[in-house]
TrEMBL record:
Name under which the protein is recorded: Uncharacterized protein
Length: 82
């Protein structure tokens, strides 16, 4: 499982990201949590075990590119489908 928390204004980006993850990792569920009280542009991607894989809070720039997150998940050991 991958958990994505995001600013309510970033729903379209969450959907794009979830689609990219599910396409590359067919057995991985993406659980999205819209955070209405979050700062503008907030985005956090966590592994199922709670490890933060990407967060705008860590000063890594803007919203994550879907392929960037796919690469992070591969590096974290998520099994990619072929």
């Amino acid at each position: 499982m991958v958990v994505v928390e995001y600013d309510s204004a970033e729903t379209d980006h969450f959907i794009e990201l979830a689609d990219a993850i599910e396409e590359c990792f067919p057995g991985v569920a993406v659980d999205g949590h819209e955070k209405e009280a979050s700062p503008k542009g907030f985005f956090r991607v966590r592994a199922g075990n709670g490890d933060v894989l990407f967060s705008t809070e860590e000063g890594k720039g803007g919203l994550p590119d879907p392929q960037q997150v796919v690469s992070i998940l591969k590096d974290a050991g998520y099994p990619a489908g072929d």
